[in-house]
Known about the structure:
The mean pLDDT is 86. The protein is mainly α. It starts with a helix and ends with a helix. The protein has helices spanning 3-37, 45-94.
Amino acid sequence: MTPDEVKEIISEVLAEQKRSNDVDHVVMKTIATILTSFGIEEDDRIELKADFSHLRRWRKSVEQAQSYTFKAVITIIVTGVLGAVWLGLKVMLGK
């Protein structure tokens, strides 16, 4: 490779890095602007993360409660049916 080719490659790489950095800066600024428009300040990231963690725990506990409720309802229905069958058999055998 000639020194001119090396310089050309280096200048292309540096230009690409500059474009990439410009894009990254624009993206970060856009995200910050959107979050600010929602009332979320850039300094509130830690609190926002804690809020999302709390919401996730709340959602999981609600899902778990729904699961237990469903199991309890199924257990009550099965117990009622078995009790009715038992009473029916008891009455039929008592005749």
